[in-house]
Design brief:
Helix content is 31%, strand content 24%. It has helices at residues 3-19, 47-58, 70-78, 99-113, 130-139, 154-165, 277-292, 296-299, and strands at 25-26, 29-31, 35-37, 43-44, 86-92, 117-124, 144-147, 170-177, 181-182, 196-199, 217-222, 238-241, 247-257, 260-267. The chain is elongated and about 65 Å long. It is built from 8 helices and 14 strands. It has 2 domains: 3-165, von Willebrand factor, type A domain (Rossmann fold, 3-Layer(aba) Sandwich); 170-299, no CATH class. The longest helix is centred in the first third of the chain and has 17 residues, at 3-19. With 305 residues, the protein is an alpha/beta fold.
């Protein structure tokens, strides 16, 4: 980082440090071609630790070389506490060659922490890699934000910190159609009046050997697995229905939150289903699921091509 991005990163870090809750533990890792941490291990938020971190943020300089993210993230995950949830904020203005490797690292660590690890990414400046910033946040079950060198970012940063502190809403289920939907694929003996095959369940049972999941699939949701959704952050999910399968007049979204079950009814406007734009966007999201390894194909490990 140099110039505007470096200044913006310093301001973002200072804002985060000033806004941390008093009962948290925190650390700061500076990275480039090399990396180091401000503290040997995460410290309790106190006047002493805050003062040291704030001074570090105010005096940050572009002296670490090129952008290499894998090793500092690996160190952060390996040194995180196992007895409490961990939120990681990644601030970068650069690009890397090994996005896929970084994403796999985040996925692996997130699975080991069993939903107690989330990663939020902030892209700074005009040259930052959107693919990097968005990919790591999807893998880390957080979300991403972008700020330009001249943009005020207080609202974005504080909103992200607020969402990182409290448990997210998760375990979503969406009712797209009034048709009866089987979570698992039909068996070989069930050849008459087969129910519609759904490709947005969490069931990972492979289909029968003679079952073609592509030609027999009548409902596809993208993204296949709905990640945590955060207040104030727009999230879009698509559903592709085969001809003859009608959508509900109201789409029902149900989920679990730390305050209990929740349910939301969303009226469906038939106008939005016309034309090809919506279909194109849905297809793009399906392709992204394939690239991320989170599609229905990856969840149903054995499929007939």
């Amino acid at each position: 980082m140099q110039g505007g991005p470096m200044k913006k990163a310093s301001e973002a870090l200072q804002l985060l440090l000033r806004s941390l809750p008093e009962d948290c533990l925190f650390n700061v890792i500076s990275f480039g071609s090399r990396f180091d941490s401000l503290f040997e291990k995460s410290q309790s938020y106190s006047q002493e630790s805050f003062t040291k971190a704030l001074k570090h943020a105010q005096e940050m300089t572009a002296s670490y070389g090129g952008t290499e993210i894998y090793n500092p993230l690996k160190w952060a995950f390996e040194n995180s506490r196992n007895d409490m949830p961990t939120s990681v904020f990644l601030l970068t203005d650069g690009q890397v060659y090994n996005v896929d490797q970084i994403v796999e690292l985040i996925k692996s660590c997130e699975e080991k922490k069993k939903d107690d690890l989330r990663l939020f990414s902030i892209g700074i400046g005009d040259s930052v890699s959107h693919n990097l910033v968005e990919s790591v946040s999807r893998a880390g079950k957080g979300y991403s934000q972008f700020v330009t060198n001249t943009e005020r970012m207080d609202k974005k940063i504080l909103g992200m910190l607020k969402n990182a502190i409290k448990p997210p809403i998760k375990d979503y289920n969406i009712t797209w159609t009034d048709h009866i939907i089987e979570d698992s694929l039909p068996t070989e003996t069930n050849t008459v009046n087969n129910p519609i095959i759904s490709c947005f369940s969490n069931i990972t049972t492979p289909p029968p050997a003679d079952q073609n999941i592509f030609t027999d699939t009548k409902i596809q949701q993208a993204p296949f697995l709905i990640p945590p959704i955060y207040p104030g952050v727009r999230f879009i999910v698509y559903c592709i229905l085969e001809k003859g399968v009608e959508a509900c007049k109201e789409i029902i979204l149900s989920a679990n939150s730390h305050d209990g079950p929740m349910k939301l009814s969303i009226p469906l406007d038939p106008v939005i289903l016309q034309g090809s734009k919506m279909h194109t966007l849905a297809a793009r999201k399906l392709i992204q699921d394939l690239e991320d390894g989170t599609s229905f194909i990856h969840k149903h490990h054995s499929v007939k091509f």
